[in-house]
């Protein structure tokens, strides 16, 4: 099922795996279209006789869903996520990170900690590859930047862990660990500007 925790994880993987390219056009109508598709995927997964199903989801639908349908569920401290579907499994996009919120919840490395000198909302951009098969998924980070400067993978991991924390998962997610796909999804194919969810 696309539960709230799965949604949070998906949002984090995608929003911290983002690029500086212009965001596609978004609308409430396209966000509602994405919501209906998610409902249909969940309904198929819970049916007594679940059938093989392929659901196309477009880039504007993803971004519209983030902007209009689940804006309040995006973790506090993250804002304006934009996703790009580049093809061959590659994801990209952009998110604003509230560094003051982040720094309040971590122990500083002192003068040698580069993040201690950054405050306010800053853009984090990155890209990576999503590989899925037989109901399992794995994300491989290719590159990331903060405010235009290269962001080392350990700092990306720290951001992901911090913003993905929940009561059931207080340490957050490790971006290197494989994860189970929800709703009996067997694989997700990422094509240019469109992904295909296969149940």
What distinguishing features does this structure have?
single chain; 199 residues; 9 strands
Q: What's the gist of this structure?
A:
Helix content is 30%, strand content 31%.
| Low-pLDDT runs | 14-23
Structural class: alpha+beta
Report the C-alpha radius of gyration, rounded. 17 Å
| Fraction in beta strands | 25-35%
Structural account:
- With 199 residues, this protein is an alpha+beta fold.
- It has helices spanning 4-15, 28-46, 59-69, 99-104, 153-163, and strands at 54-58, 78-87, 90-98, 121-133, 136-146, 149-150, 179-180, 187-191, 194-198.
- Helix 2 (28-46) crosses helix 3.
- It is globular.
- The termini are close together.
How is this fold's topology laid out?
Elements: H1 4-15, H2 28-46, E1 54-58, H3 59-69, E2 78-87, E3 90-98, H4 99-104, E4 121-133, E5 136-146, E6 149-150, H5 153-163, E7 179-180, E8 187-191, E9 194-198
């Amino acid at each position: 099922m696309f539960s709230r925790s799965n949604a949070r994880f998906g949002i984090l993987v995608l929003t911290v795996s983002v690029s500086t390219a212009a965001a596609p056009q978004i609308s409430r109508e396209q966000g509602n279209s994405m919501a209906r598709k998610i409902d249909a995927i969940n309904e198929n997964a819970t049916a007594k006789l679940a059938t093989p199903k392929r659901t196309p989801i477009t880039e504007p639908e993803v971004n519209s869903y983030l902007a209009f349908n689940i804006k309040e569920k995006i973790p506090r401290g993250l804002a304006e996520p934009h996703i790009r579907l580049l093809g061959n499994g590659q994801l990209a996009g952009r998110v604003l990170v509230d560094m003051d919120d982040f720094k309040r919840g971590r122990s500083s490395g002192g003068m040698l900690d580069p993040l201690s000198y950054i405050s306010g909302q800053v853009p984090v951009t990155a890209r990576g590859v999503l590989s899925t098969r037989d109901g399992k998924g794995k994300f491989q980070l290719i590159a990331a930047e903060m405010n235009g400067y290269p962001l080392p993978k350990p700092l990306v991991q720290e951001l992901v862990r911090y913003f993905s924390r929940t009561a059931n998962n207080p340490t957050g997610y490790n971006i290197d660990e494989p994860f189970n796909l929800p709703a009996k999804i067997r694989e997700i194919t990422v094509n240019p500007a469109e992904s295909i969810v296969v149940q």
